[in-house]
Specification:
The protein is an alpha+beta fold. Helix content is 50%, strand content 17%. It is built from 3 helices and 3 strands. Strands 1-3-2 form a 3-stranded antiparallel sheet. The chain is globular, with a radius of gyration of 12 Å.
Amino acid sequence: MESQNIRPGHLTAHQTASALGVTLGGVRQLVHRGQLQRAGGTARQPWYAATDVAALTAKRQARAAA
C-alpha cells in the first residue's frame, strides 16, 4: 500500500518505476548503483525527488537515442 501523504515534488516507488519504465526491483538497483537517491518516506515506502527522476529519465533517453 502506497503512502497517501506524499510531499509535493516527490514520487512513490511505483510512480518512479512507471516513469522510468522499469520494475520496482529496477528502481532498487538504480538506488544500489547510486544513480538515484531516496528523498524521504520510509524504508518500506521510499519517495524519490521528481527532479531526480526526470533527470535520470532524460539521461536514459539520450543514451538510448545515441
